[in-house]
Amino acid sequence: MTKTLYERLGGRDGISRIVDDTVETHMNNPAVNARFLPYKEQPEKLGVIKQHTIEFFSAGSDGPPIYNGKDMVTAHKGMNISPAEYMHVIDDIFVALDKNSISEDSKKDVLAILWSLKGMIVSQ
Fold first, then answer.
1. 9, 34, 48, 71: which has the highest count of C-beta atoms within 10 A?
2. In 10 A of CB 78, how many CB atoms?
3. HSE-up of 39 (CA within 13 Å, CB side)?
4. Can you give the CATH number for the domain in which 69 is found?
C-alpha cells in the first residue's frame, strides 16, 4: 500500500513545520513580504492563518478532512494577487519542502495541488 501525500509530508507535524518554514520564507522574500510582514504585529491573526493553512493542506492531501477556514476565493477576495506573486509563493513553498527533505514525487503532487488552486487565488 502506498502512503498518502499527507503521510509523505509527515502528517500534521510535518505539514506544520512546512507551513512555519513557508511563512518565514515569505517574510524574507521581497517579492511578497509586504503581504506577510504586517502579521508579525498580529501574532494571533498569523496563528489563525497558519492553522487554516495546516488544516487546508492536511484535508487536501488525504489527511483529516477538517478545515474551518474560508473557501479560497473568499479568503483571497480583494487581495488582487498577481500571477508573479503566486509564482513567488510557490517558490517559497518549495524552499520549505526542500528544507524538510520532501521527496521529488511528493513535491510534484504538492505542485499539482497548488496549480489547481491558482484560478481561485490569483486576481481575486
1. 9
2. 6
3. 17
4. 1.10.490.10
Q: Measuring CA to CA, which residue among 25, 5, 4 is closest to residue 98?
A: 25
Q: Is 122 helix (H, G, I), strand (E, B) or coil?
A: strand
Residue type, 40: K
Question: Which residues are CB-contacts of 57 (< 8 A; sequence separation ≥ 6)?
Answer: 9, 15, 18, 19, 63, 113
User: What averages of pLDDT result for each successive group of 10 residues across the chain (124 residues)?
Assistant: 94 98 97 95 96 96 93 93 97 98 97 96 88
Query: Which residue shows C-alpha cell 510534484?
Result: 108
In this prediction, residue 28 carries a pLDDT of: 97
- Total structural domains within the chain: 1
